[in-house]
Amino acid sequence: MKAYPNVKINLGLSILRKRPDGYHDIETLFVPYHGLRDELEIEVCGGPGDRISLEGGGWDPQSDLSMKAVKLLRRDFDFPPVEVRLRKHAPAGAGLGGGSSDAAFALRMLNDMFSLGLGDASLAAYAAELGSDCPFFIYNRPMTGEGRGEILSDYALDLEDWRIEIRIPEGVHVSTRDAYSRVVPRECEPGGRMPLREALALPVERWRDALVNDFEPSVFALWPQVEAEKRRFYEEGAVYASMSGSGSSVFGIFRR
């Protein structure tokens, strides 16, 4: 079975507070982006155990989230050994959720291959054990994310009249853990800003001053080339530009 896991962008990303468990409560809108996809293939293999081959990753294949997805389901289900073949196109450390997408797609593929009988809610629960962004990719449609990002709600979003373009500054890899360590939660800031849903309800042309990614100030301070990409989008006529997730990718929204 073969699939093409897509990435996501974040429209707005509010870091609300740090939690006792060390994570942060956030609020964001996840939007699937199909212009950048990995290639994932899973087949039954004849060997004594699961295998994985990874092209374009640059890390230990056994630590890849797609392989962790196999091991997670094997905890509760008995199915034949599989071989996972993953070809990476979505870069790590870009805030696009490529690894999370691979894991979610692997869960869904295994569920279909071996008729495990898991519905979306059950698959999302497994996905949440692998990463905060993973559950979104089980549904793979515009959804608000709260809590760590795993509490999802459908959101009606119409961007048919708009074109989205993503750019990733060369040589910039932003660690999500490091980005969170430098961000200032909103509850620590004086005054208030427009709530996410209120900002999203505005016309796209008004998002520029209302829809904010709270990671930007700290990431821009360390990586000015990321801020430069955002500025370049506006110079080229984008009506809205933002960093996605904790960076380093930046996207621009243009009228078609």
Overview of the structural elements:
Catalyzes the phosphorylation of the position 2 hydroxy group of 4-diphosphocytidyl-2C-methyl-D-erythritol. Its EC number is 2.7.1.148. Residues 207-254 form the GHMP kinase C-terminal domain. The protein has helices at residues 65-74, 98-113, 120-130, 134-139, 176-182, 196-200, 216-222, 224-235, and strands at residues 2-3, 6-18, 24-37, 39-44, 51-55, 82-87, 143-147, 151-154, 162-167, 240-243, 250-255. With 256 residues, it is of the alpha+beta class. The strands form three sheets. Strands 1-4-6-5 form a four-stranded mixed β-sheet, with helices on one face. Strand 2 (6-18) and strand 3 form a beta hairpin.
What best-fitting shape do the alpha-carbon axes yield? Answer: globular
Query: How many helices in DSSP terms?
Result: 8
Distance between the termini: 35 Å
Query: How do the SSEs run, as a string of H and E?
Result: EEEEEHEHHHEEEHHHHEE
Radius of gyration: 19 Å
Major sheet: 4 strands, mixed
Q: What fraction, in percent, of the residue positions are helical? A: 25-40%
Category from helices, strands and their pairing? alpha+beta
Q: State which percent range the strand residues make up.
A: 25-35%
Quaternary structure of the protein: single chain
Low-confidence stretches: none
How many strand segments? 11
User: What value does the average pLDDT take?
Assistant: 93
Strand line-up in the sheet with most strands: 1-4-6-5
